[in-house]
Amino acid sequence: MTTGKRTRIPREQAQEIILNAAEELFYQEGIHAVSVDAVVERAGINKMSVYRQFSSKTDLILAYISRKQEAFWTEWNLSLSKHPDQPREQLIQFFRDLAAKASCTDYRGCCFLNVAVEFPDTAHPVRELVTTHQKRIHDAFLVMAEALGAAHPSELAYTLRLLMEGTYAESQTYGTDSAAIQMLPVIVEKLIDTSIASP
Q1: What confidence tens digit (pLDDT) does each residue in 45-78 have?
Q2: CB 191 within 8 A of CB 166
Q3: How far out from the chain centre does Cα 172 lie?
Q4: How far is it, in rounded angstroms, from Cα 68 to Cα 140?
């Protein structure tokens, strides 16, 4: 016979459970469409436990975005680690891995772009965090473009960023089996080689 009392979950474990639930719901259904109650139900934790870990839904969203940032840079570093000190091959590999990810049937596009659409106010803390992340990506492309010896590194960095974001949009507009996504690594390879060969 149970007494109805709940076992207190350690703080770090509770945060992980809540974030896992929020990540699944926010990414698949959109942030504004998901209530705190929905996160509570998915997590199997009472609402008070959620508010012990996150003072507001905004704090939960910020934690979700921070987790997604960490995941992105983990994937970035994994791609680059396959070709140490070879910036050309590293960039091609990143886009090869991106194409594979964007071709998964359950792919819902870039979570950062999805969030940016939902938060049009550029002064909102959620949007600011997304903007900071996107700027860091651009800066990383610029560093790689300079390491390649591109004739116009800024132009190449912008183009690579647009190709990345275009891939996200392509997967949602035309489907994850899009031929354009499959061609992405070849397109990037030709772009890079043209950029290096330019006077």
Answers
A1: 888 888 889 999 999 999 999 999 999 999 999 9
A2: no
A3: 15
A4: 17
Please give the structure tokens belonging to residue 194.
């043209």
Q: Write out the two tokens for 106.
A: 């359950």
Q: Which residues contact 69 (CB under 8 A, 6 or more apart)?
A: 129, 133
Residue 10 DSSP symbol:
P
Q: Is the dihedral of CA 137, 184, 71, 126 positive or negative?
A: positive
Taking the alpha carbons at both ends of the chain, their separation in whole angstroms is 80
Residue reference for tokens 């070709």: 83
- Amino acid (one-letter) located at 120: P
Structural element, H or E, at residue 52: helix 47-53
pLDDT digits (tens, 9 = 90+) for 124-160: 999 999 999 999 999 999 999 999 999 999 999 999 9
- Helix (H, G, I), strand (E, B), or coil: what is residue 108? coil
Contact indicator for 164, 98 with CB cutoff of 8 Å: yes
How far apart are the C-alpha atoms of 93 and 77, rounded to whole Å? 11
The amino acid occupying position 13 is Q
Spatial CB neighbours of 199, under 8 Å, sequence gap ≥ 6: 151
Q: Which is nearest to 149 in space by CA: 103, 90, 87, 98? A: 87
As a whole number of angstroms, the distance between CA 119 and CA 43 comes to 25
Q: List all residues 6 or more positions away from 52 whose beta carbon is below 8 Å from its beta carbon.
A: 11, 14
- Find where tokens 């550029």 sit: 122
Which residue shows structure tokens 């705190």?
36
